Amino acid sequence: MPTAAPDSRPLHAVLGSGPAGTALARELARRGHPVRLVDRRGEGPAPDGVRRYAADVATADGARAATAGAAVVYHCVNVAYQLQADVMPGVQKAVLAAVEESGARLVVLDTLYPYGETGGAVMTEETPWRATTRKGRMRAELDDRYLAAHREGRARVVLGRSADFVGPGVLNSSLGGAVFPGALTGGEVLGLGDIDLPHSYTAIDDVAVALAILGERPEGDGRVWHLPTALAVSTREILAMIEKRVGRPLEVVVLGEPRPFGPFDEVFMAEYAEMFYQHTEPQIMDSSAFERTFGVRPTPLEQTVDATVGWYEQWLSGR
């Protein structure tokens, strides 16, 4: 049987070109899918096999254009932290309307925010949604709407939840631009809250692989999945892994409460204050359901740390 031409395969549209969207676009292209990577500018380098596209998916026309002709749409859009509660509901409305109209499947990258404070209990897909913060309630409301759209047959939707990102290209994370540059240059390294508590971090490449699987496997639709995430260890243990990799002790500055530090300015930290509980109680995410169902294991943390240090070395040398 002849092999189909590459451009005859169903299009996958990735909305959002941050670390997750870019890693996902690269992974989809690696799997042989035609990929459209969408952001408001449509500029900059693109992974091989990926076409960049400019659209504002917070508008009905922009979302419709961004998703036109796509069989699968991946919602990886994010905005400035202080704007999330105001902007993300509008993005959802536009994107959900677009896929309801086109019939495309929708894969949504999600957070742990809907669970709220758990007292350190392990978070599974069965954990109740008890968020009390503004952003946590907003995320829970969005997720309710996504799942309702699926139940009611208006759209085919699946949600993939991730813990804090870590990995190549990840800057704006508690284990990102406030940690690795200082580790490599002898500068200060940020630790938030109680760094001896277990805390889950999800490798950005595991996010990409798992979202691609959800895009290819419609049997996962209609529910929330926890994306593959390595077993939680303390942030102090991860800092020790970084020390071993860079060959020097780290100058760790531990913030017991949110205040500006490095890339996290006063505006960000003021907005982040309500979420600071994530660093004063254990944050333990269980992804075993996804691992069993789809046969995927998370990348070992040591390997992720190694790759991240290597990426930051190159990033710093090119600045």
UniProtKB/TrEMBL annotation:
It comes from Streptomyces marokkonensis. This is NAD-dependent epimerase/dehydratase family protein. InterPro entries: Epimerase_deHydtase, NAD(P)-bd_dom_sf, NAD(P)-dependent_oxidoreduct. SUPFAM superfamilies: NAD(P)-binding Rossmann-fold domains. It comes from the Bacteria. Residues 16-220 form the NAD-dependent epimerase/dehydratase domain. Gene3D superfamilies: NAD(P)-binding Rossmann-like Domain (3.40.50.720).
